[in-house]
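Here we describe the complex-level prediction in full. Unlike the single-chain runs in Section 2.1, the two entities below were treated as one system.
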Amino acid sequence: MIDISEHLPALQVVVPMLSAGMVMLLRPRGLAWAAATAVSIFAFAIAIALTLTVLEVERQTYLMGSWAAPYGIELAVDAFSALLLLIVTGASSLALLVGYRSLDAEIETERQPFFYAAWLLALSGLAGILVTADAFNIFVFMEISSLAGYVLVAGGPDRRALTAVFKYLIMGTIGATFYLIGVGLIYLMTGTLNLADMEIRLQDVADIKPILVAAGFITVGLALKAAVFPLHIWLPNAYTFAPNMVTVFLAACATKVAIYILLRFNFFVFQPNLAGHDLQFGYFLMPLAVLGILIASAVAMFESNLKRLLAWSSVAQIGYIILGASLVSLAGLSAGILHMFNHALAKGALFLTVACLGLSVARLDLNGIAGIGRQMPWTMTAFVLAGLSLIGIPGTAGFVSKWYLISAAAAYGTVGIALVAVIVISSLMAVVYIWRVVQSAYFGTPQDATTLPREASSVLLIGVWAATLANFYFGLAPALPIELSGSAAALLLEHMP
Amino acid sequence: MSAAELILAALLLPMIGAIGIALTGRINANLRETVTLTTAGALAWAVWSLLPAVMAGERPAVSLFEVMPGIEIAFRVEPLGMLFAALASSLWIVNSIYSIGYMRGNKESHQTRFYVFFAISLAATMGVAFAANLFTLFLFYEALTLSTFPLVSHKGDDKTVRSAMVYLGILLTTSIGLFLPAIIWTYLAVGNVDFALGGILEGNIEGPAVGLLLALFVFGIGKAAVMPVHRWLPAAMVAPTPVSALLHAVAVVKAGVFTVTKVIVYIFGVDFLFSTPSSGWLLYVAAFTIIAASVVALRQTNLKRMLAYSTVAQLSYVVMAAAILKPLAEVGASIHMVAHAFGKITLFFAAGAIYVASKKTEIPQLAGIGRRMPWTMAAFTIGALSMIGVPPTGGFVSKWYILAGAFQADNYVALATIVASTVLNAAYFLPIIFAVWFMRERESDAVAHGEAPLPAVIALTITAGLTLAFFLFNGPALELESQIFGATP
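The structure predicted for the assembly as a whole is:
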């Protein structure tokens, strides 16, 4: 009898990847959807099992083919990766589970099996990045998830998605290439691709210049992937024109996985070896984070397309995560990582409500949803409640991470006071952009009074409300994400000199 | 039931009532109103059942769970909250009787929605009253803002909705932009945000920062309507009158000054603030608000708007009394919440009764109306006298204690403000009283009408009676509040 639990890190990646090919062959489309959903839920179950494990043992490793690291490929799951795995597989499962009608309406029938296959490939790529401990593996999985992601974004009926995805493709490829150049340089100097091994071998490297260049390439490349301001320009259009359920999936996790590599690489590999490397966080990433928070929030305040509005808000939220990390303190990193989880909850719920609206109204902008609060009360109430979490009202998940972020910023000295002000101001800006949607939905007059939009199907509504209530659950009982993000932050800081 | 269960009952009963109202609303209006009245009665019973224990010096508490280290969802009944909860829950019964007369008399639409949100906002009020720490208080404070929004925007036309948005906008912006940062600052300085007698901030923060933090609190608690964050209150007057009466004369605004008092007494500590010069500005801002709002009230011609500005001024009485930082003045502050509540709810009830009976909303139209509506206008007169502070009304009692506190502190600014505002109050209320009783009805306004619907008249008679009764029977309230400070009245 094989003990399956020790193989979980590998299964997390292998199951969705191998199922992708099978799903592609399944007909009719409902069967393909069912198989993809089942696989995704299975992956979610693995993620939960892994989380429970790392809560006890801190780190679960797996040697591919039993080849010892650093010669073989090592998989390693710790609190940081477990938290992200929960987000990725959870978002994917929820979007697939409740999204059949929405996806069916947006994807051409005969293409659907291919679409679900791409979905599973994206899932396995993202999961792969999270479980592997090998720098080149990360690149491979990044390409798998990105290429599949381009297919997903372009899968919708909106032809403008094609130009959006082209921009996304170019930017994403540049980002991945930069990353690869960086990894290549490090490999040149150390002869290893295993992250842990890299950290040790770098200590003996005399000529540090190539490593500096590598750090630059990797940081910028991943910042591009993570849509850190001002490298975010691919994001709003990609989110806007993607099928609604794809936006739910990608908005909750794609950029966060890039931030995950960014933090892991910087803290595990560079911090211990490059003197004063942490300063680049304070001097380089922090100003970008602040600018991103303020500018993206300001743009969102004037945006009338619903999905683009939320996408700009995402750019701002990425700023929060980077801001937390750029404080380079236990509190700051925990806050940033915690915000990954909480933002995924809030934004996932919001994009799900948008998917509900998408089935009922012709145009997803403020005019298109005017007065819809009357016809779709459940959907819009969920939007308001999830919006509260995005703003950071106490009692919601969004508040918990903002609370930690403000605590961490306030401990940062004089600059910290200004950072607190930035967080408060941007929260008020969030009030404005969420309010504009609420105002239009509840107080606007419908432009086209002939066709009354109908409330979304109960399956979708259950998903929407599950996500919305999760925001409140994790706002009032946030112990689990706090513990995971706390130990993730502690792990990252362990490697500081 | 144990005290802890009673606290939870006080929080849950209105919510259960709200569900009951929503369910019965489709079936039968009378059944729905029965549910409202039963819920209000049950809530008042639960709250009053807590009173003996609190009077005996106990502080019943219940804590639900810990959200973050040092931050719990917890409730604890102390004298200020007890008084506030007893006040709001008891007046809800009277107000529900009045609402039935008003809403039916006016043939308002969406009555079920109205009663549902009314019950929810009462649940939020109970949460504010019983909160054991700033975090819990903040949750219910925001819930109160959000649950009253549908009540303010009840009419649903453009003008109403615009006003309601001013209401929501100011309250949400100040609470998130100032109140919340103040709470977080407190947490960072102290490590918890629990209400504790004598305050928790002493020794953790000093110098000008104290004044700044106080400013964040006072202006962040927008519901206290200290100028310049008072604009939401006149805006809220677009609501149906029962909402203005219970929420914007009692529950919501008192939640504001209650929170300010609570922050001063239990977070800063009276003695700590008194010894910190940088907090002295609060008294002047409150004094300015009293005078300025009274002057603005003097110029209003719309009855409800005038009452709203009068409320702004009266709320700052509480804030100013609390800012005198002397035991008698703190007692005066808490007593004034009650006295003003009785008087102002009577005035609003009267304003609504006039509207239902005659559709009149402007002050000049009221000449001679006393002959047509003797009960209503008698109650109005009593309420107005209480605002001025004339014996034998409740307003006199609280002014007495605030003045006594001001003498204790030799605070001549407060003394002068109270004197000046009494004159101003007389200047805007006495002409109305005179016109109502002794002038002839203008011919252009002549509408044949009598008294308002009976439930409305019953309600305003009760509150007018309470205003008078509070002059004589204020002992228990004084005794309760004196517990906090050990001040002998």
